[in-house]
Amino acid sequence: MPARTPRSSTPARRTDRRTDRRPSTANHHGIHLLRSGTAVRGLVESAALGPDSLVLDLGAGPGTLTAPLARTGARVLAIERDPGFLARLERRFGDHPNVRVVAGDLTRVPLPGRPFQVVASIPYDLSTLLLRRLLTDANGGGSSLAAADLVIEWGFAQRVSRAAPRDLETAWWGAAYELRVVRRVRAAAFTPAPSVDSAHLRVRPRPGLTGRRVRRLLYAMLAEAFRCPDQPARTVVAEVAGRSAAGRILGESGLDRGVRAGAVPADRWAGVARSALGLSRR
Ligand SMILES: C[S@@+](CC[C@H](N)C(=O)[O-])C[C@H]1O[C@@H](n2cnc3c(N)ncnc32)[C@H](O)[C@@H]1O
């Protein structure tokens, strides 16, 4: 895929602000297009799409992912805001029966109301914002995301997929969703190559966490745990679920009595919340 200089000033694949690292590429728009067939195939296969699926290609560029997504038979929304890329997408997919090219800004384009998947190589600088848009919050607000396979900056992927997250927001994401790095996507897999590697991040909602009560309880525990990560997890559970139940809940969840709240893996908190409500942990 030849490098192409878009006409707009789109800040596409720039490093997420939290990392302070910036691609050193000469491409002043910072747009890095996927050119690795392995990475593209890995994303599309992981998504396991079929004719009933609705999939969003967020930041579709020239259609590198849009084309293999369309071949699965899924309905594809290719969302892009760069006029040059949009014209190219229209030329390629304007007559395609299951592709709709959407001119829109990823920060505010309306997301579908029905369950949808995302397969996309998203702009680095929108990574946090897009996860916030896609992943549901403790009150069930957010989108109808069923699954996502994303190419994001390696460091950001490591941060959000840590077993023991360091902040409340990533702990919530890790508790409510399985966030797994499937593979490293080397800088050379893009043209032009950015200065940092990327990752294929697989995002799937964890089963058994759809109810409002369990989500609220889970969030309350995480909030208490991250208010003071050095306190024992037992204190957190006692605070939220009651002192008398704390021992039983910890035992059922297989957590050591003395473990620090900040050291408990995010997915274990999901099990704790389910135990606290008398739900089975699987
Ligand atoms: C990393 S490139 C990926 C392009 C293509 N999907 C690929 O894999 O080669 C990110 C794309 O997002 C687009 N983009 C950046 N910011 C955007 C925004 N706010 N709204 C819509 N598209 C945006 C860029 O124009 C660019 O095409």
Report what the structure shows.
- Its EC number is 2.1.1.184.
- GO terms for molecular function: 23S rRNA (adenine(2085)-N(6))-dimethyltransferase activity; RNA binding; rRNA (adenine-N6,N6-)-dimethyltransferase activity.
- It is built from 10 helices and 9 strands.
- It folds into 2 domains: 2-205, 3-Layer(aba) Sandwich (Rossmann fold); 212-277, Helicase, Ruva Protein, domain 3 (Orthogonal Bundle).
- It is 35% helix and 18% strand.
- The strands form 2 sheets. It has a 7-stranded mixed sheet with strand order 4-3-2-5-6-9-7. A two-stranded antiparallel ribbon has the order 1-8.
- The model is unreliable at 1-28 (pLDDT under 50).
- Helix 7 (212-227) packs across helix 10.
- It has helices at 37-47, 66-71, 83-93, 127-134, 154-161, 168-176, 212-227, 233-241, 243-253, 266-276; strands spanning 33-34, 54-58, 75-80, 99-103, 116-121, 145-153, 177-185, 190-191, 198-205.
- It is of the alpha/beta class and 282 residues long.
- The protein is elongated, with a radius of gyration of 20 Å.
- The structure holds S-adenosylmethionine (SAM).
- S-adenosylmethionine is lined by residues 6, 10, 12-13, 31-34, 59-61, 64-65, 80-82, 85, 105-107, 121, 123.
What are its keywords?
282 residues, alpha/beta, Rossmann fold, Helicase, Ruva Protein, domain 3, seven-stranded mixed sheet, 10 helices, 9 strands, 35% helix, disordered N terminus, binds S-adenosylmethionine
